[in-house]
Amino acid sequence: xxxxxxxxxxxxxxxxxxVALVLSPLAPRAADAVAGVAIPLVLSVGYAGLVLAFWSGxxxxxxxxxxxxxxxxxxxxxxxxWVHYLAFDLFVGAWATRTARAERIPHxxxxxxxxxxxxxxxxxxxxxxxxxxxxxxxxxA
Length: 141
Hints:
Radius of gyration: 17 Å
Distance between the termini: 57 Å
Number of helices: 6
Strand content: under 5%
Helix content: over 70%
Shape: globular
Number of domains: 1
Order of helices and strands: HHHHHH
Mean pLDDT: 96
Largest sheet: none
């Protein structure tokens, strides 16, 4: 299967997980299972397969920014990097959703954090951490 074909499978799969998180108040256990376990595991298997199959033949490495850029000129390795983002960002979004539920953070407050995590990974984690900190301080006051 070509990297483009795999890309066309991975993206909607991850998007399904994000939809599950947005709708998680309707079916929290299903959202946890789908977005927090099943899809990240499937993406992780895909990532591992790509790395095992194509990493050794790719040029570049992690010693400098130029080496990283060279590494990602191989379409299979670039796809592996993208799937890495898809899996981990979704996993973080699922964690935030479970944590928000456990800490009784209203779901509408979580939604902007999920959007940021979906689009910009660590920025969403930062936003959710700030939200938790702010609500905890307000509750303690």
